[in-house]
Design a protein that fits this description.
It is built from 14 helices and 26 strands. By secondary structure, it is an alpha+beta fold. The longest helix has 13 residues. Bound molecules: uridine-diphosphate-N-acetylglucosamine. Uridine-diphosphate-N-acetylglucosamine binds next to helix 1, helix 5 and helix 6.
Length: 430
């Protein structure tokens, strides 16, 4: 079993470079199904969800070749729809993008319902509503989504009842090759929605309005292969910003788009942290003394992201006074609270609201990751805490953060992965 060991209390310094955005890379990789040609995708993050996506593409009959650590060549000419294995579909949430892409290209798809982090109920009704509006017949039977559009798909106007990243992207994928115009109203505005639209447009699609709440997709006959580079990961960048703020450090985060970080920057500044914008990097400079208490509510972009909820909770634990953190997107995003409580945090959760009373310091403990971003919060808490903290269930972290230990070590953290054999207590560094 692999764990992470952190000897906390050290300041970070120098710089850390951010990789490609997971939540853009996954739909872009699976979106290559629509292209039926050779694409080269660059700046992929080296994380296990990318490996799962490439395994999905191979299982469907695509040719997949890594050109270097972060670049892949994919040829989807020979993809057979409806053949994604159950286990791969369950391995991550983003597997549902196969459905939009297959439906768009072949007019048919069949896939097991997706897995992913457990934030309570994660419905896909808005995806289905969109596919049906385009003319597909959709059934969900025995945990499988079956879609068929024998006459092909036809553009339509779709009003999203909820702002959903996944549904916006999935409908966009399905609509690119549909006949006529599709309009998605109340669309998600996240940078990864824009990146997927940019990728598809580079392939010959006709999508306008991505990044606003009305996206228009004029159907085209076919797409062609391209070379495309994924944008930097704003959540990875935000996580490193929080690492710096929690440890009173002076750290530069490189390869970022500061515009995407505005809500995170605003909250850190409110807490008394100094952020300098260098165009493609941000410098996080902690000021002397404790962080200031603030209230935070997570929201769809451009609001403060739900995927940065657990990370800022750690800072609020260390701030002077009582803060309120409200989750505006998911029902169950506070599973990490139990673990922070083991480290001495004072947090009371009532539904989607956490009341966090700042403490002067956290205590080292053995803690578990309950999901991907909760895992990132455990790392931040451990970095900020004197003594050794051991983090378990780190496979969650590896789904979404590339070389996290190496990157933080390069900035002065005492953090390493340890391998603990299941049967004994001996450990060795890996
Ligand atoms: C994506 C991200 C996830 C992030 C989330 C919000 C991926 C793989 N995952 O998830 O990390 O936390 O965006 O930024 O990119 N909803 C419905 N019906 C639907 C779809 C969603 O009611 O058909 C609701 C959800 O229950 C949730 C809200 O809409 O309350 C937002 O979900 P959505 O934006 O779809 O999240 P994902 O795309 O699953």
């Amino acid at each position: 079993m692999e764990k992470i060991s952190v000897i906390g209390g050290k300041r970070l310094h120098g710089s850390i470079t951010v990789g490609g955005m997971k939540n853009a890379a996954l739909p872009i990789l699976l979106g290559t199904i629509l292209v039926g040609d050779k694409c080269v995708i660059e700046n992929l993050p080296e994380i296990s969800d990318i490996k799962s996506s490439l395994d999905i593409l191979s299982s469907l009959g695509a040719t997949v070749k890594m050109l270097d650590r972060t670049t892949v060549e994919i040829n989807t000419a020979s993809v057979r729809p409806g053949t994604m294995p159950y286990e791969l579909a369950r391995s991550m949430r983003a597997s549902y993008y196969v459905v939009g892409a297959e439906l768009g290209r072949f007019g048919t798809s069949r896939a097991a319902c997706p897995g992913g982090c457990d934030f309570g109920v994660r419905p896909i009704d808005q995806h289905i509503k969109g596919f049906e509006a385009l003319g597909a017949k959709v059934d969900v039977v025995d945990g499988c989504i079956n879609c068929v559009a024998p006459e092909g798909l036809t553009g339509s106007s779709i009003y999203m009842d909820i702002v959903s990243v996944g549904a916006t992207i999935n409908i966009m994928l399905a609509a690119v090759l549909a006949k006529g115009m599709t309009v998605i109203d109340n669309a998600a505005k996240e940078p990864h929605v824009v990146d997927v639209a940019n990728f598809l447009n580079t392939c010959g699609a006709d999508i306008s309005g991505a990044g606003t709440d009305v996206i228009k997709i004029r159907g085209v006959e076919s797409l062609h292969g391209v070379t495309y580079a994924i944008i930097p990961d704003m959540i990875e960048a935000g996580t490193f910003m929080m690492c710096a703020a929690a440890t009173g450090s002076d750290l530069t985060i490189e390869n970022v788009i500061p515009k995407h970080l505005e809500s995170i920057t605003a909250k850190l500044e409110e807490m008394g942290v100094d952020i300098e914008d260098f165009g493609d990097a941000v410098r996080v400079k902690s000021v002397q003394g404790p962080l200031r208490r603030i209230n935070v509510k997570t929201m769809p972009y451009p609001g403060y992201p739900t995927d940065m909820n657990p990370q800022i909770a750690v800072l609020l634990c260390l701030a002077q006074g009582t803060s309120i953190l409200t989750e505006g997107v998911w029902d169950t995003r506070f599973k990490y609270v139990e673990e922070l409580t083991r480290m001495g945090a004072h947090i009371t959760v009532d539904g989607r609201k956490a009341v966090i009373e700042g403490v002067s310091a956290l205590k080292p403990a053995t803690v578990k990751c309950s999901d991907l971003r909760a895992g990132a919060a455990m790392v931040i808490a451990a970095l900020a805490t004197e003594g050794e903290t051991v983090i378990e269930n780190i496979y969650h972290i590896e789904r979404g953060y590339e070389h996290l230990c190496e990157k933080l070590r390069g900035a002065g953290a005492d953090i390493k992965k340890i391998y603990v054999p299941d049967t004994g207590s001996a450990t060795k560094a890996v």
